[in-house]
Design goal:
The structure holds 2 protein chains of 2 kinds. Chain A is an all-alpha fold. Helices cover 72% and strands 0% of the residues of chain A. In chain A, helix 1 packs antiparallel against helix 2 and helix 2 packs antiparallel against helix 3. The longest helix of chain A is centred in the middle third of the chain and has 27 residues. Chain B is globular, with a radius of gyration of 22 Å. The chains are: A mainly alpha, B mainly alpha. Chains A and B meet through helix 2 and helix 3 of A and helix 5, helix 6, helix 7 and helix 13 of B.
Chain lengths: 199, 371
């Protein structure tokens, strides 16, 4: 009973936040709505006892991805009116994507109603221990795919760094080792100055 | 009294559980908030001592002739709560007032999984360490939003600095926590403390409690140092307080905040986070509630038995380090902070995780019993 109420509350906020992402005029507000949407989907996962997935969603998307997103959105001065001009041009494409997604969701729900399991049988888990179960699966059965995924991510990181790395001539850089190695004797000279008495 | 018992029985098992949990949560929150108040007092006194000053010594509790100055934090709180809250005209007013709340929530919510004693923890969460990582990563939102919503250049600069710094140090912090969970084999904080109780110095005292030698710091010393320093950077404390940098950007992200929004909502998260970092460092690396003399003295002595007091003492040591560093070190330059986070701490933690892997593989030291 309580779970059902919570589910509807979180879902309602999730849908509202998702609408806010699209409808908000201010890009920062839109990004914040997205954060709220992530939070509520994490809460929905928690309701399904997928605590690991829920917390990782918050950690990765809210804690890292959206922070950088906000960072960029705040730095750029986005002109909403200019963005609106492109709306009519991309509207047909957007409508197509939306229709496709609705079709997929209806399809999935419809098949579930018929009792057909699309995802294959999920192994039964002891309640509260699915973090351990997930880890075990990832590092035994799905070892190769997860390692491959991490290699792909590493390549992406290296590629991003290489793309932005350029050698600029005449660039003045600080040599940290030299800075750390400095001793006071290198910089401070103690002079002996005789005092002079003027008569 | 009888009517009370009557009402209590009327609540039923679920209701009683709810009441007890609420009381526990309120007790923990109140202790955190009072600790924050005392921390501000301790900070001024300790730094005063280090700088050969006296510190606050005027405000007394109800005019009592002793403990002069102890009521100073309460006087400060009352003053700040009664001050006018100024909302800048050109600011985003909703976010401006929301940002302090967003800063406050993660600072308080994280306490839910902290184990205070062998049998007192608010939520026995299996993914406790992940929960902590997730919530500490949210703390940055309050700062970014405050900086942006104020619509002030200084505030935005402070927010940008702070965000970059927190994101950078979070990675090193996360890796340090990975080392801890490898050592404990669990994400549950209570289990992590339990795992530190014996066997870590097992070749010295095979299969026995070895007190302070069996805690995580012994094998994970580099990770402890990295964790604590990253914690200082995450809380924007000196010497990593460029986000406030009075000499360049006035007060950074909270330059436009005043009165209650400043006091309860920026001072409070900062100090609550400091205490949290100190607590987590004690729990993860210094054996939490465990006694340092366990295994050396007779087990029934109070000195050798686990209790909350040990955790409290460990937290105080770390908190003192916070104040000590603030009084000792000059502020880091911004590029130095970035270099320390990315080029020093992350490699150190990565190398030490590798070393730990090798130790686990060859069953060295503490891992002789695990596998």
């Amino acid at each position: 009973m309580l779970t059902t109420i919570l589910f509807y509350v979180f879902s309602a906020v999730l849908v509202g936040a998702a609408l806010g992402v699209v409808l908000s005029r201010n890009p920062v507000h839109a990004a914040l709505c997205l954060v709220l949407a992530f939070f509520n989907s994490a809460a929905l996962w928690l309701l399904l006892e997928a605590e690991f997935l829920g917390i990782v969603l918050v950690l990765v998307y809210v804690g890292a991805v959206m922070v950088l997103f906000l960072f960029v959105v705040m730095m750029l001065d986005i002109n909403v009116a200019q963005l609106r001009e492109g709306f009519t041009r991309y509207a047909p494409l957007g409508a197509m994507v939306a229709l496709l997604m609705i079709g997929e969701i209806v399809y999935a729900v419809w098949f579930r109603q018929l009792g057909v399991n699309l995802a294959g049988s999920a192994p039964a888990l002891a309640p509260g221990s699915n973090t351990a179960a997930l880890g075990e699966l990832l590092y035994s059965k799905y070892m190769l795919p997860s390692e491959l995924a991490s290699v792909v991510l590493l390549v992406a990181i290296v590629a991003a760094i290489v793309l932005t790395l350029r050698r600029r001539p005449n660039l003045k850089q600080q040599d940290i080792n030299a800075q750390v190695a400095v001793r006071s004797i290198d910089r401070v000279r103690i002079m002996k100055v005789d005092s002079v008495t003027r008569s | 009294m009888n009517t009370l018992i009557h009402w209590w029985n009327l609540l039923g098992a679920d209701g009683q559980h709810l009441v007890v949990m609420t009381a526990q949560i309120v007790a923990v929150m109140m202790s955190v908030i009072v600790s924050v108040a005392m921390m501000t007092y301790a900070e001024r006194k300790v730094i005063g001592f280090i700088q050969v000053r006296i510190g606050p010594n005027q405000v007394r509790i109800f005019g009592l002739p002793f403990l002069k100055g102890l009521a100073q934090p309460f006087a400060d709180v009352i003053k700040l709560l009664l001050k006018e809250v100024i909302v800048p005209a050109e600011s985003d007013k909703f976010l401006f007032l929301l940002a302090p709340l967003i800063a406050l929530v993660p600072a308080l919510a994280t306490w839910a999984v902290v184990p205070f004693s062998p049998d007192f923890v608010l939520a026995k969460l299996d993914a406790g360490l992940l929960y902590i990582l997730a919530l500490t990563s949210l703390g940055v939102y309050g700062i970014i939003l405050a900086g942006w919503a104020a619509n002030s250049k200084y505030a935005l600069l402070g927010a940008m600095r702070s965000a970059a710094q927190i994101v950078a140090y979070e990675i090193a912090m996360g890796f340090a926590l990975v080392g801890v969970l490898m050592a404990a084999g669990s994400l549950n904080l209570t289990e992590i403390v339990r795992a530190q109780s014996h066997g870590y110095a097992s070749y010295v005292y095979p299969w026995q409690a070895a007190g302070f030698l069996s805690w995580n710091w012994f094998w994970l010393f580099p990770l402890m140092v990295v964790y604590f320093i990253a914690g200082i950077a995450e809380t924007n404390r000196a010497p990593f307080d460029v986000a406030e940098g009075e000499s360049e950007i006035v007060a950074g992200f909270h330059v436009e905040y005043s009165g209650a929004t400043f006091a309860t909502l920026f001072a409070l998260p900062e100090y609550a986070n400091m205490i949290l970092v100190a607590t987590l460092a004690s729990v993860l690396f210094l054996g939490g509630w465990q006694s340092p003399f366990e295994g050396y003295l007779a087990a029934d002595l109070p000195l050798a038995s686990p209790s909350f007091l040990w955790l409290f003492l460990k937290i105080l040591c770390f908190l003192f380090c916070f104040l000590w560093f603030r009084a000792t070190f000059p502020r880091y330059r911004y590029d130095q902070i970035m270099r320390l986070g990315w080029k020093v701490f992350i490699p150190i933690t990565l190398i030490w995780i590798g070393v730990e892997c090798v130790m686990v593989w060859f069953k060295v030291g503490p891992w002789a019993r695990v596998l």
